[in-house]
Amino acid sequence: MAILGLGEAGSLYSAGFQAGGWQVNGFDPADVATPAGVDRFDSVADAVRDAQLVLSLTNGKVAARAAADAAPHLSEGAVYVDMNSASPAVKAQVADAVSAADGVLFADVAVIGSVPAHGSKTALVISGSGSARAAEFFAALGAPVEDIAGRPGDASRRKLLRSSFMKGLGALIVEATEAGRASGAEQWVRDQIAAELADGYTGLDRLHSGTVKHAQRRAIETVASVDLLDEIGVAPVLARAAAEVHQRLADADGRSNEELLAAYAGLPVANIGDGRGRMGMLDSGIRSLWKGARAVGRARTVWTRAGDNKVLHEAVAKVRPGEVIVINGHGDLNRALMGELIAERARSSGCVGMVIDGAARDIDALAEIGFGVWARAVSPAGPYKDGPGHIDIPVAVGGVVCNPGDLVVADDDGVIVVPAAEAFTSLAAGRAVEADEAQRRAAIVAARSAS
């Protein structure tokens, strides 16, 4: 057999199959340790050649590409098993890629439970043309298997339905624990949660640590769960919030977030918008107050009464490096919500810009210090300072809802808000648009030169 992807899950399944008497080949382009007993190859082709069984344990984003790379080299009668957390549509793409090989069966395998806790004996749901064969292989390892036959994606659909609860529960536990810590009552909150769980602190710690440790992979899974609920007509309110928590955790280490923001640097708002189907761009009334301004950062949100900036001062005091302050000022054009002094204070805390559905002032000074502000108007009149207002809640700005932690990109063309859970996929889509436009422009220039 062959395993594509030799991370934690790949290592555990390789150990299980070796204990069952299988010879295990492996492939992984990443610099990860080779599991004991695995013959590691430098290419997918060499790893899968002559294998009766192939397990894909890459991740949902590259599952279809891995299958396409493997398909020409699969043996007749082999079973190709995709175990990645992905949407039913991705599973169908993988099955189509594998079907290009004669006599190859496909199994969509959804992992229902914790692989670190149960290893190769973790419960599974299986569908697809090769479900019966795959069920035999995994059952022989001692795994509880539910063979639902059906189409590629049916097993994944079951898992995503379960994920809408399980991943949401993990996200809720993390958020509640963080709130307890911030209030000086973390252990009390933990006691309350553990008292409601059948396995108490064991379950609490498993759900908490798993959510934090695997946040990036689970962010992809929770987004797929959101898409499924949308598809079947159920409003994914809590599922979408869970996806945002997972993505926030994935970005929690400064390096990850810095790398993401750096990757967006220089990518035009227009390209990002095209890559997102022209969704998420603020209306054209909100524009840069000085030419050449650009900002990329996470949203720190503010909702204030029209013409009043009392709560903005609270947001400036809490802003973190790499954040953009996004303000719903009710579109008021008569009083500036910020100017040079607030900009200087925000910039000193690492704030990289402000987006205001309202007015600002001191635009020459803003340009001089290089602080980007996108607003609906310029007004010399200062604001009231009476309140009320709120920070760190969803706000409506320029016809778009912006949640705390969403990615905000702004340039001379305008502003776009990218939901936190879609930051990585939107980056890839925007880069693809940028590359396509560069190629088309080069062709136009070449044709003009030739003529």
Fold topology:
Layout: E1 2-4, H1 8-19, E2 25-27, E3 39-40, H2 44-48, E4 53-56, H3 63-70, E5 79-82, H4 88-98, E6 105-111, H5 115-118, E7 124-127, H6 131-139, E8 145-149, H7 154-182, H8 186-196, H9 200-213, H10 215-231, H11 237-250, H12 254-264, H13 269-275, E9 287-288, E10 295-304, H14 310-318, E11 323-328, H15 340-348, E12 353-360, H16 363-369, E13 372-378, E14 389-391, E15 395-397, E16 400-402, E17 407-411, E18 414-418, H17 423-450
Parallel strand pairs: 1-2, 1-4, 2-3, 4-5, 5-6, 7-8, 10-11, 11-12, 12-13
Antiparallel strand pairs: 6-7, 9-13, 10-14, 10-17, 15-16, 17-18
Task: Sum up the structure in keywords.
17 helices, 3 domains, alpha/beta, N-(1-d-carboxylethyl)-l-norvaline Dehydrogenase, domain 2, NADP binding, eight-stranded mixed sheet, 451 residues, 45% helix, EC 4.1.3.17, Rossmann fold, Glucose Oxidase, domain 1, 18 strands
